[in-house]
Fold this protein.
Amino acid sequence: MNRTKKTKKKRGGVFAALAAVLVIFAVGVASGKAFERLSELPDYGLTVSAEKSAEAVVAEIPEDRFLMLVNSKNKIPENYEPELTELSNGQRVDSGIYPELQRMFDDMRAEGIYPVVGEGYRTRSEQQRMLDDKIRAFEKEGYSEKRARAMAEEWVAVPGTSEHELGLAVDINADKDNSSNEDVYEWLYENACRYGFILRYPIGKTLVTGIDYEPWHYRYVGTDYAEEIAESGLCLEEWLEKNPVQ
């Protein structure tokens, strides 16, 4: 389960950099009223710039569906319906990722770290409701319908472009009675790739993914590829560009 010393040093440096970024961000929030609303909004994934679903192309489903690319430019085919497995807390995931997800959680608990899946699969209608709720919230603040929609789409993925609709993405947080989020995120960063999961939205890749750093959002790509992708330092978009799949 231990990584090499070189890898640990490299990843430790990333966490040191993250800590510095969080401190700077916290100072900015404390000192500027312009950031006050930011801390109050639910975390659905802050996008750099909203892409209209009409501008997206239908994503191709590769032979290995675990490598399917979905983002603001690649939307899920209308007829895509994953086979789902329900977790003990009622969340659902693609049945194909369940064995490795369960194995990963069992190993975490054996080390005294207790994770939970806060968000798994979402239907398109659930994603639409999230977007509609966010639009209404901005309208209540006095924004026009057009402006409210544009702002909402910076926080909530347009239906059909969220990885959660694949069932291959999970938001993993801590059981707060037994662990901290920081412990969970650090363990996942060091080990998740061994179980087929990658950190989907890493630090420094926002301009590529369109999503800010999310230490809780992990995407299953399979045990054949996850370690290679994690060690490459590339996000999924970059890795797939260099390694096209059929």
